[in-house]
């Protein structure tokens, strides 16, 4: 329809001297064709020659000329030979003449012309003309196609002799179509080429069409490839078409060679390679990938890649597939740093690698490739190298670098927590003699054994380090007491002193130890090293096989602490710890109304030490807890005995801050009262103001619980604290003890006298009992009595005395 619209209007030439016929034709074809009119033979032939009409209407009935001659003149023109001519005749036309013209292809219309008939005849011829032109054009197109289309087309008869061929120039097999006609296929195509197609030709002649590819050669020997189609066109005709696929074949060969080269390359790689399609299903594994994953190629083919390449992190959690991520994000994705491959049999391998998308010609991901390799050995080697960088190669102990790092961390933690930290330097005595006499091999073995013993003797958080030679350094964070450092150093020294055996030989070693402490004698790492080294030097100077602290003060305290603990452990039998009592006197009748229990320590040499000489150390080392319990129990036993003897007096016992802070102190006191039978209202607990100031809520709860037991609470050394008055309203206090420092100076110092007077008035106003400490003269006693103080305690009324002497005084 599109071509119909675009074609030019058909042209019709009327050769007629009568205008009426021209009008009839014009009317019949109005709007359908161009109608041209000519009269006279010369004018008609000229117009026909120039116009080249699609149809001619010729009036052959003109009386003054021969219309048949015009007809033949028109047919003689080459360009008009195929143009149909409709002859217009009269009613009396010569039948023979008309029949002669009809045999030449003419048609006829008789006058007078009818519009309908004229239109029908003309349209029929125009339609036939159009179809003829289309057939002619199709034939020409087919001829051009056969000639110029890049396909060899030939027809053969039943004897395989050539009927026709489109190879006019002889480009395919060296023979042009004209020379090939009539030749047998063997001669037309060449013997080698014919031999390659002999069997398919035989089958095609038998009626079986064939389609195949074959290798051909040109007359000059050049090889080419063709795709051959043999189609039977009946019993006697065979059509052959051959298209040149040499370029495709070469491309296929190149692709095959490239794929083979890639396959060999991938199989030869030391890395594992897995390829997938765009759905993440495995399409290729090289041998290394088979070995690492445990999957054979045939088993892994078309499996999901995350099933074949199953990745975990170092904690055992599954990792997302790098292949799917690479496909989704269209970028190269690296495997996680701590990635491990779970093999098909469950084994684990540390791997590194990356996945990348493979993009097609349109820029879309057509698949992905994962390349990875086993780094288990390399990672283990890295760990080993890192370990060697921070550990001694001989003993596997931390070296100086690692010790320094741990020391700095321990110092930072100790600074934040307020804990003590110790650094011990241990040196094997005269170890060089073993190296010189027995050889370094024996010396190295002994150093390894020493390292093992030292490790076995340490706490979990301690670090022992070999600094080189026969010197070891021990870091002890979180020390609760100085004693722990001394005990640990003695333990290590004893471990070293135990005999070592190598084969049949026995080796006896000894060690000198130097100790420095943070924050007691050192504030930083450098000082700790220097002080420990200095202490080690002193230990060696004193004859070796000794432990020495850097500070003489600390060392003395340690010796005292050791003796104190040893005596405490054996105190019940040897009576190393004694309870003395100082009387409290009612000045109105000079009667003893109470006693204060005071601790005394009898040393091995018989000297008796007052509390001021060992209680601070006991508080510092934590021994105040068992010592306080010892005094409390003994005071209750003596108080019960005196009460049973008829002495109505209070027994006061000092309670330290550590005892108050101890969670089970109230239960311990209840148990002690029950055990000894002491009446709770006869027991008075004396606390210093510093105890009250530590934790108000905790102390309030503790004092309330103590009061519930029935005991009374006294504030010792009242007036020396910085916030005493604020606590008097809050705490359940029964007694205030005026500190002896104010009593001692009250007569000579107006300020002290004023403080004493203020305390007395305040206690009286609040209904609290008063005890004046440190009364050493009658003047002090009279001055206090005048102010209303009745209970006094001090050397004027009696010094602290053993229980036997207090028994005699009370009796």
From TrEMBL:
Residues 419-552 form the GGDEF domain. The modification 4-aspartylphosphate is found at residue 59. Pfam families: EAL, GGDEF, PAS, PAS_4, Response_reg. Keywords: Phosphoprotein. GO terms for biological process: phosphorelay signal transduction system; regulation of DNA-templated transcription. InterPro entries: Biofilm_reg_signaling, CheY-like_superfamily, EAL_dom, EAL_sf, GGDEF_dom, Nucleotide_cyclase, PAS, PAS-assoc_C. Residues 258-303 form the PAS domain. Residues 11-126 form the Response regulatory domain. GO terms for molecular function: catalytic activity. This is Diguanylate cyclase. It comes from Chromobacterium sinusclupearum.
């Amino acid at each position: 329809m599109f071509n119909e619209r675009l074609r030019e209007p058909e042209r019709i030439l009327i050769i007629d001297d009568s205008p009426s016929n021209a009008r009839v034709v014009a009317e019949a074809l109005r709007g359908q064709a161009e109608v041209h009119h000519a009269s006279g033979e010369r004018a008609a032939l000229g117009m026909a020659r120039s116009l080249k009409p699609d149809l001619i209407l010729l009036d052959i009935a003109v009386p003054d000329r021969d219309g048949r001659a015009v007809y033949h003149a028109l047919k003689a023109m080459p360009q008009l030979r195929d143009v149909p001519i409709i002859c217009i005749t009269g009613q009396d036309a010569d039948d023979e003449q008309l029949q002669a013209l009809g045999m030449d292809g003419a048609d006829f219309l008789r006058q007078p012309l009818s519009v309908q008939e004229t239109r029908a005849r003309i349209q029929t011829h125009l339609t036939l003309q159009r179809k003829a032109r289309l057939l002619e054009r199709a034939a020409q197109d087919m001829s051009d196609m056969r000639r110029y289309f890049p396909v060899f087309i030939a027809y053969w008869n039943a004897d395989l002799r050539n009927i026709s061929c489109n190879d006019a120039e002889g480009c395919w097999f060296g023979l042009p179509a004209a020379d090939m006609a009539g030749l047998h296929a063997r001669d037309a195509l060449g013997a080698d080429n014919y031999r390659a197609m002999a069997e398919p030709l035989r089958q095609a002649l038998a009626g079986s069409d064939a389609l195949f590819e074959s290798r051909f050669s040109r007359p000059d020997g050049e090889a080419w490839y063709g795709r051959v189609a043999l189609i039977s066109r009946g019993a006697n005709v065979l059509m052959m078409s051959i298209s040149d696929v040499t370029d495709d074949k070469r491309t296929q060969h190149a692709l095959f060679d490239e794929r083979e080269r890639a396959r060999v390359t991938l199989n030869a790689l030391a890395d594992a390679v897995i390829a997938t399609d765009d759905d993440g299903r495995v399409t290729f594994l090289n041998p290394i990938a088979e070995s690492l994953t445990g999957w054979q190629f045939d088993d892994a083919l078309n499996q999901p890649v995350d099933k074949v390449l199953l990745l975990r992190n170092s904690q055992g959690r599954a990792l997302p597939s790098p292949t799917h991520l690479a496909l989704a994000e269209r970028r190269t994705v690296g495997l996680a740093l701590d990635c491990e491959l779970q093999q098909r049999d469950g084994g684990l391998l540390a791997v590194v690698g990356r996945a990348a998308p493979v993009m097609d010609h349109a820029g879309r991901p057509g698949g992905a490739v994962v390349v990875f390799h086993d780094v288990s050995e390399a990672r283990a080697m890295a760990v080993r190298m890192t370990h060697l960088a921070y550990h001694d190669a001989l003993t596997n102990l931390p070296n100086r670098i690692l010790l320094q790092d741990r020391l700095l961390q321990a110092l930072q933690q100790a600074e934040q927590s307020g804990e003590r930290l110790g650094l011990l330097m241990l040196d094997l005595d005269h170890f060089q003699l073993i190296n010189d006499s027995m050889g370094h091999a024996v010396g190295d073995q002994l150093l390894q054994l020493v390292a093992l013993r030292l490790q076995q003797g340490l706490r979990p958080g301690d670090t022992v380090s070999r600094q080189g030679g026969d010197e070891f350094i021990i870091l002890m964070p979180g020390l609760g007491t100085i004693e722990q450092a001394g005990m640990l150093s003695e333990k290590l020294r004893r471990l070293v002193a135990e005999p070592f055996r190598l084969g049949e030989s026995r080796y006896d070693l000894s060690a000198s130890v130097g100790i420095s402490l943070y924050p007691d004698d050192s504030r930083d790492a450098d000082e700790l090293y220097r002080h420990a080294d200095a202490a080690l030097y002193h230990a060696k100077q004193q004859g070796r096989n000794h432990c020495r602290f850097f500070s003489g003060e600390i060392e003395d305290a340690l010796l005292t602490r050791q003796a104190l603990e040893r005596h405490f452990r054996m105190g019940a039998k040897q009576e190393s710890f004694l309870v003395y009592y100082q009387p409290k006197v009612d000045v109105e009748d000079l009667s003893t109304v109470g006693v204060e229990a005071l601790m005394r320590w009898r040393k091995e040499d018989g000297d008796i030490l007052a509390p001021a000489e060992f209680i601070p150390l006991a508080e510092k080392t934590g021994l105040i807890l068992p010592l306080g319990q010892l005094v409390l129990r003994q005071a209750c036993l003596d108080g019960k005995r005196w009460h049973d003897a008829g002495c109505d007096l209070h027994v006061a016992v000092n309670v330290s801050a550590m005892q108050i802070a101890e969670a089970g102190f109230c239960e311990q006191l209840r148990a002690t009262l029950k055990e000894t039978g002491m009446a709770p209202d006869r027991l008075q607990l004396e606390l210093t103001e510093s105890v009250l100031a530590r934790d108000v809520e905790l102390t309030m709860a503790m004092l309330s619980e103590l009061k519930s037991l029935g005991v009374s609470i006294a504030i010792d050394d009242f007036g020396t604290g910085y916030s005493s008055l604020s606590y008097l309203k809050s705490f359940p206090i029964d007694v205030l003890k005026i500190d002896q420092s104010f009593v001692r100076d009250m007569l000579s110092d107006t300020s002290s006298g004023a403080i004493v007077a203020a305390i007395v008035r305040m206690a009286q106003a609040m209904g609290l009992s008063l005890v004046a400490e440190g009364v050493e003269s009658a003047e002090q006693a009279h001055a206090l009595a005048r102010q209303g103080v009745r209970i006094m305690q001090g050397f004027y009324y009696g010094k602290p005395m053993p229980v036997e002497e207090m028994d005699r005084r009370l009796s």
